[in-house]
Design goal:
Number of domains: 2
CATH architecture of the largest domain: 3-Layer(aba) Sandwich
Number of helices: 15
Radius of gyration: 22 Å
Shape: globular
Order of helices and strands: HEHHEHHEEHEHEHEEHHHHEEHHEEH
Helix content: 25-40%
Bound molecules: pyridoxal-5'-phosphate
Strand content: 5-15%
Largest sheet: 7 strands, mixed
């Protein structure tokens, strides 16, 4: 809570600012652009330019920095997924590009492992594609994928989560090998796979045709994302975008998913910062703030609250605290703790994720020092 004007711009509208102890979630705003991004965005204001050219140059700058053949800036990783499916179905055929989301006469099936269905797979359907599951709830085998590929298969999708590898899913290596042997492209959702740095673009270097990255995790505005891929894939993807719609007068499905020129240069600045910053320092700072929070919560254990520091450093949200509530001792459940924190002033947002029992706190959305407020407010509920 930096300064007495905290959240004023929202209060002036009658809206209530909150302290975000959940992390980078879209519903709460996703990210706060870092100074490097804000400065780049401000410098972009002074001039106009054709966005075909800016997309190309900004995409090349990003591709060079993360060591992949090509990149394109989109309206979030979600839009990158949608544009990728459009590109895989319509390719560079202008008639087909204008026909979507009607997929008649096109390969329109995106294969996805039953075990890998996830919240954002809906974005794969927006351009008209159909998701087709393969494998079972228990596991996915090579034979499952081999049997699932058919004449209408447009691509095989893979959801990469390196901080929590699923031993029963079909690995990406096998997915690429089997799909490519049949001439089928592979798409990867790697939205948060940005650290260690060799993860950034790794799936393209492994042979996948496309991967998305969410720029909200990199310190850009949450409204931008990156499509990374082969030159052919990214070229076809660009034809489906709002830039292609206006610049080529070819009306693709990507038209509603606009990106500002300011956001585009902001995304370049965010990638540059991420690729060159001192990550040891970043991790040490987050770890220290988690320790501060842990220290404040010391003494609540015999009151029914157990706090454990998480040690993950992969991805965009290192460390964090997992809080488990013993309802018998505390007289309230974890969800009731979440509700009480939300009712306080200012409201503190935390969550128990669907299918889980504990509260997980991350530093990502907390301004410097807010971890102290969060710690004290939680401690006060128990002591
Ligand atoms: C956040 C996220 C997305 C969506 O990204 P946006 O940039 O918000 O559109 C897609 N996939 C995963 C795994 C994500 O975490």
């Amino acid at each position: 809570m930096a300064g007495s004007d905290w959240g004023d711009i929202y209060r002036e509208l009658g809206a209530k600012p909150i302290i975000n102890a959940i992390g980078s979630v879209t519903m709460l705003g996703g990210s706060s652009p870092i100074p490097e991004v804000k400065e780049a965005m401000e410098r972009a204001d002074s001039a106009y330019l054709p966005l075909m050219e800016l997309e190309e140059k900004a995409g090349q700058a990003i591709a060079d920095m993360v060591d992949v053949p090509a990149a394109y800036i989109t309206a979030g990783a979600g839009s990158a997924l949608t544009l990728a499916t459009a590109a895989l179905m319509a390719g560079d055929d202008d008639d087909k590009i204008q026909q979507l989301p009607d997929t008649s006469g096109m390969k329109n099936e995106i294969l996805i492992q039953t075990r890998q269905r996830y919240w954002y797979d809906r974005c794969l359907e927006l351009a008209g594609a159909k998701l087709v599951e393969y494998g079972s709830d228990e596991r996915t085998t090579r034979a499952d994928l081999e049997a699932a590929i058919g004449p209408n298969t447009a691509a095989v999708h893979y959801y990469a989560v390196e901080q929590d590898i699923d031993p029963n899913a079909l690995p990406l290596e096998d997915t690429i090998e089997i799909a490519h042997a049949r001439g089928v492209p592979v798409t990867v959702d790697a939205a948060g796979q940005i650290y260690p740095l060799d993860l950034f673009g790794k799936y393209i270097r492994m042979g996948a045709d496309f991967q998305c990255v969410a720029a909200k995790y990199l310190g850009a505005t949450q409204s931008v994302g990156l499509a990374l891929g082969t030159e052919d894939m990214i070229h076809k993807l660009s034809l489906q975008s709002f830039v292609g719609y206006e610049g080529r007068r070819i009306r693709g499905v990507g038209r509603p998913q606009k990106v500002d020129r300011q956001e585009m240069v902001g995304a370049v600045a965010a990638v540059r910062h991420w690729m060159t910053m001192n990550h040891e320092e970043r991790l040490a700072s987050v770890e220290a703030r988690c320790q501060t929070l842990l220290g404040i919560l010391k003494g609540t254990e015999d009151k029914g609250l157990k706090s454990v520091m998480l040690d993950n450093v992969i991805g965009h949200q290192p460390f964090g605290l997992e809080l488990s509530v013993d309802q018998g001792v505390a007289g309230m459940s974890a969800q009731q703790v979440v509700d009480k924190l939300k009712e306080g002033d200012p409201p503190i947002w935390t969550r128990v994720r669907e299918g889980e029992e504990n509260i997980v706190i991350h530093m990502f959305g907390l301004a410097e020092g807010e971890e102290v407020i969060v710690g004290e407010r939680i401690r006060d509920l128990f002591i």
